[in-house]
Structures are given as structure tokens and as C-alpha cells.
Amino acid sequence: MAEYKAMPLGEPPLTVDALAAEPRTLADFPTPLVTLSEKALAHNLRTMSAWCASAGVGLAPHGKTTMSMTLWQRQLDAGAWGITVATPWQATVALDWGVPRILLANELVQPAAIRALAPHAARLTVWADSIRAVELLADGLSDAGATVPLAVLVELGGAGGRTGARGVPAALEVARAIASAPALRLAGVGGYEGALAHDASTASLERVRAYLAEMVRLHRELDAQGLYPAEGEVLLTAGGSAYFDDVAAILAPLRDPEGARGRPVDVLLRSGAYITHDDGFYRGITPFSRGGSGEGLRAAIHGWATVLSRPEPELVLVDAGKRDLPYDEGLPEVQAVRSLRGGPAMPFAGAAVTGINDQHAFIRVPADAVIEVGDVVRLGLSHPCTAFDKWRALPLVDDALADDPRVIGVIETCFG
């Protein structure tokens, strides 16, 4: 299994299923290593499902975080509406994996991609933020001989943000173009508030809430102007993993999936990182930590690295680097050390990662720190979205925080 960098070395070839059926200790696996913790994964799935039910919103988790069929299925089994993807290729993966409802939260404008996805319009919803994008969609579907109208959400953006029509008047023009195209069906409003803020300051939260209020205004204008089709559900979707509480507070009152007040309307969050959470960016910004939104999420993803050198009393070099660990939203944090001489992982106070190369991390430690070559360090990670794509397979441990974590399975990923 040399093609999987996380697997035991020097052993006869094993299938992933066979390895999962034979639990081993973490010490059997080489470093650098990134693991998932079953105890924390199960907790996060339960916690987010319960929170969404309480808040009155649905969930279409963003699959780009993990690109794992196993984890996607667990999210669906926990009640997810469907899976969100970001690219046409990711949409084809979701189709191949049997995902019943797929939200492509992006503009679909490549003619070849439109033709490839046209036969699957009944399972797919896409976005558009310009009349040109609508024209490309309509022309591509017509060329492909599509027989089922494709559901399209008009995307509302914000100044300085990412994609999305700038302002309600511009979005209404896009919506009119969608509504007038026979191959398309205006299916609601989409947006992403996370592109407009990156922290939980008062100014950032006010900007997020103002943007969400504009989404509500757009939806009401679409309804008032009769742009929605006479039949069919309308979707309103926003919400990454940072501000989903504000999304629920502002959009959930519009949710009416049974159509008791008239038109059926569903409100979907697209949070994806919640399934593993982290020990960095999301730990600091999640509503569970800043807003008292019930029981919190737990970090389910960790790095493990072996001490290769201690060339100076206050400097330790370990064998995990940029090719193994995320670093775009903060460096890993040192949590504990497991001695090569045996025993449980011990908390490691006063140590900090100060830099990271391709295959090394620099850790500053107190001069009197008890750590030596061969010991293994457990690292908390920040931003799981850029951790999963570095691993074709991640060992699943029973509990990463246990004295002696046991590897009980393997989670495979698909990043192309």
C-alpha cells in the first residue's frame, strides 16, 4: 500500500477493507500522519444535525471539505438534504457516488461541462450571477438536447466579495433571464456571506447580517414580481461554517417546506467543516464558541509528527510539513508528546510551531522541555479543507485524545 502515505510500511499489500478489519495501534503507522477521530466525528454529526433541527434550517454540507464518499454518506444518513460541490468535476463525483441531490454552488459556464451534466438535471441545482452565464447555460442545455429544466439559483454577491450579482437590481435582471429560458427553472436565491468577513468582530457580523437581509429582500422581490415558476420548491441557501447562526436567524423564518403559507420554501446551510471542526480558524469563529449556541463541536482531525532533530535546546524539528498539514489559516499547534519510551501522550506546554517547510516543521520549546529524538508530537490543525486534499487515505482512530489511540478504519478521499 505504498501509494497511501499513511499506511504501515514494510508489510504485504493489504486492501483498505482488510486493514480496517484489523485494528492496530497508532505506533504501527508512519509519520507524518493525519488522523480522524471517530468519537469526535460522531459527536459533530449529532451536534450539527440537532442544531439545524432546532434552528429550523436544512443542511446541504459542502463536500469539497472532505471529498470522502464515506463521510458524505454519514452526513446524508444524519439528515442532510444533499451534498454541495464547487466544481463540475466534483458534481460528477457526487453523481457517481449516488448522491440524490447535488447543489453546485457556483456558476456553470463551461460548454463541455454543461453538456456532461445536462442528462442529470433532475438531481442538480446550479447558480448564475450574470445574463451571460444564463445564456451559456441555456445554449449548452439546448445543444445537449436536455429534456428536464435545470434548477438555477440567482446568486447575490456583495461589494468586495466573491461571485454574485452586485445588488438586488442586478440580481433581478439575472433572475428575469433565468425565468425566460425554457431550459432553466428559477429555483431560488444563493449566496455566501463568508466571502464578506473573516472574523467575528462587530463590524464583520453587521456586514454579514446586512447581506443576508438583502438576500431576503431579493427573494421577496422575485416572489412579488411573479418570477418564480407556478410550481416547485424554492431554495434559499447561504452559510459556511463561520456564520451559520446568523443565516438561520435571518433566513429560517422564510422556511416553509410543506407550503403551508403558500409556496414551498426550504432554507439550506452549506457548512462543511463542522464534520471535523479544527483547533484553529473554525474553533475561533464558530457560533458554538462565540454565541453560546449549545454544545460545541470537537476537533476530529489531528496531525502526528516524529521528532527528527533537536539541534538546539530550544529548537525541535519534526517530519511533517506543507505537503502534509494545512497552514493557510494558521500554523499547527503543539498539543501533546508521546515518548518513544512508551506511555500515554502528555500535554506539552510552552511549545509552538514557528515555521513550516515542505517536509519539516520548526517547533520552539523551553530549554528544559522533556522531548527527544524519536518522540511523536500530536498537532492540532487549522482549516480542514486544506488538510484532506493532501491525503488519499486517513486512518480513523477511536479517539485521538485517548492514552493509546487505536486505528479502527481508514477514510479514503477523492481529489483527482
Task: Tell me about this structure.
InterPro entries: D-amino_acid_metab_enzyme, D-ser_dehydrat-like_dom, D-ser_dehydrat-like_sf, PLP-binding_barrel. Residues 300-398 form the D-serine dehydratase-like domain. The protein is an alpha/beta fold and 416 residues long. The chain has two domains: 16-37 and 296-412, Lyase, Ornithine Decarboxylase, Chain A, domain 1 (Beta Barrel); 101-270, Alanine racemase (TIM Barrel). The protein has eleven helices and 20 strands. Strand 4 (83-85), helix 4 (88-96) and strand 5 (102-107) form a beta-alpha-beta unit. The radius of gyration is 23 Å and the shape is elongated. The two termini are 18 Å apart. 47% of the residues are buried. The mean pLDDT is 94.
Radius of gyration: 23 Å
Annotated CATH architecture of the largest domain: Alpha-Beta Barrel
The poorly predicted ranges are none
The fraction of residues assigned to DSSP E strands is: 15-25%
Oligomer: single chain
Q: What structural class is derived from the secondary structure elements?
A: alpha/beta
Estimate nothing, just give the exact number of structural domains. 2
Structural shape: elongated
Average pLDDT reading? 94
Percent range for helical residues? 25-40%
N→C terminal distance: 18 Å
